[in-house]
Amino acid sequence: GFVxxxxxxxxxxxxxxxxxxxxxxQHITAVRQEVEIMKLLDHPNIIKLxxxxxxxxxxxxxxxxxxxxxxxxxxxTAGCLLEREVAAVMRQVLRAVCHMHDRxxxxxxxxxxxxxxxxxx
Length: 121
Known about the structure:
The protein is of the alpha+beta class.
């Protein structure tokens, strides 16, 4: 799939639209489950789900737009992060994970490329 930037027609608010081909039924079931889980999660350190809808060939997931890039890219660009930066990131990650665990949900794929920043530094 791919992600593109979208704009709400009425409000002008920016969002991210993740488009996935339906392909195998197993893949569609996983996407539907992910959407249902995202509906349960409301936390400042977890991307917000705005909407999700299906077409015959594709599934579209409309989410909060994060323009600050991935944690992995920041690490690779800087070579390393300062201890205070790592502490700030880990604090936010752990708050998000605790929120998920409180709702009996596990991420199962925690890695630097899955952590996004809302804005650039």
